[in-house]
Design goal:
It contains five helices and two strands; from the N terminus they run βααααβα. The protein is mainly alpha-helical and 99 residues long. The chain folds into two domains: 42 residues, no CATH class; 47 residues, no CATH class. A two-stranded antiparallel sheet has the order 1-2. The protein is globular and about 35 Å long. The two termini are 16 Å apart.
Length: 99
């Protein structure tokens, strides 16, 4: 069963990082920004969306004020989790897509 951290910010809840190339690039530090551009620039067209999704997640974590605490908790296995059913119910209650 898949899980999400219970503090997960759903897209309709407001985002720190716009889901655009410029939004993602602007949220990353210079070395990571160059890595993002290299990966996106060399990705076949059918992989571009997956690259953007991955780097958007990286940018969201990088800009999270609690990012260091969340990373440490994930690495030591103490990060609170929610079931996928809870995440889907949260999205459905807000009228957000479930796919």
């Amino acid at each position: 069963m898949s899980v999400q951290p219970i503090h997960y910010r759903h897209p309709g809840d407001g985002e720190r990082v716009p889901r655009t190339v410029d939004g993602i690039a602007g949220a990353l530090a210079a070395p990571r920004r160059m890595e993002f551009y290299r990966e996106l620039g060399t990705a076949p067209l059918e992989r571009a969306e997956a690259v953007l999704r991955r780097w958007w997640c990286e940018a969201m974590l990088d800009t999270d004020p609690e990012g260091d605490r969340i990373t440490a908790a994930a690495l030591d296995g103490t990060l609170p989790q929610a079931t996928i059913e809870d995440v889907l119910a949260h999205r459905q209650a807000r009228g957000l897509p479930l796919e």
